[in-house]
């Protein structure tokens, strides 16, 4: 890898987005979600009535995995303590986990996206703080499967997040 991609945004954000791992564009720039998936994430954030600067965006992994592979359980486990500290510092009202890898890592369950998304989950941080988590489809998956049904599902998930964060649609 070239750069550490720690995360960026408002360190006091009400909403935190957590992706899987930096891709090539992110590795080269040192910033999360700046490639094609990131551009779609930006559109989602704007549709929520927010600016990218008003949320916090990071990934489970802070460096690009070799060959861009899906992170192994070992890699996510090694990265997780840093993510949990990051969450504790930002202290968001809601976390949106993007895709299966980030959702399974934070929720510590092996379920499919279809059964995880669309409803609230809770995680307890090592400090004892409890944070609400809404899993939704990864924007890279949406780009590959840009159907009306999938877009509607993501929008429905994001509306629940806006309500919890005090910004109803
Ligand atoms: N995909 C991710 O999961 N994270 C990024 O930062 C970019 C693409």
What is the subunit organization of this protein? single chain
Shape: globular
Q: Give the strand content.
A: 15-25%
- Give the class from helix and strand content and strand pairing: alpha/beta
Mean pLDDT: 97
Largest sheet: 6 strands, mixed
Bound compounds, each kind once, are:
uracil
How many β-strands, per DSSP? 6
Strand order of the largest sheet: 1-3-2-4-6-5
Poorly predicted runs are: none
Helix content: 40-55%
Task: Give me the Rg, rounded.
Answer: 14 Å
How does this structure look, described?
The chain is α/β, with parallel strands linked by helices and 169 residues long. It is 43% helix and 16% strand. It has helices at 24-29, 36-47, 73-90, 99-107, 113-116, 139-144, 148-164; strands at residues 8-9, 15-19, 56-59, 94-98, 121-124, 130-136. Strand 5 and strand 6 (130-136) form a beta hairpin. The longest helix has 18 residues, at 73-90. The radius of gyration is 14 Å and the shape is globular. The mean pLDDT is 97. The structure holds uracil.
Features:
6 strands, 169 residues, alpha/beta, six-stranded mixed beta sheet, globular, binds uracil, 7 helices
């Amino acid at each position: 890898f070239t750069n550490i991609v720690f995360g960026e945004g408002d360190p006091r954000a009400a909403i935190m987005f957590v992706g899987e791992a930096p891709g090539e564009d992110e590795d080269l720039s040192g910033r999360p979600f700046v490639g094609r998936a990131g551009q779609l994430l930006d559109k989602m954030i704007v549709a929520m009535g927010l600016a990218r600067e008003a949320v916090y965006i990071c990934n489970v992994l802070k460096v690009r995995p070799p060959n861009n592979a899906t992170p192994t359980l070992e890699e996510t486990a090694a990265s997780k303590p840093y993510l949990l500290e990051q969450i504790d510092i930002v202290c968001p009202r809601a976390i949106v986990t993007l895709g299966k890898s980030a959702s399974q890592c934070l929720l510590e369950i092996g379920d499919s996206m279809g059964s995880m998304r669309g409803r609230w989950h809770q995680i307890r941080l090592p400090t004892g703080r409890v944070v609400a988590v809404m899993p939704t489809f990864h924007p890279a998956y949406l780009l590959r499967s840009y159907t009306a049904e999938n877009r509607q599902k993501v929008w429905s998930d994001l509306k629940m997040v806006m309500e919890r964060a005090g910004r109803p649609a």
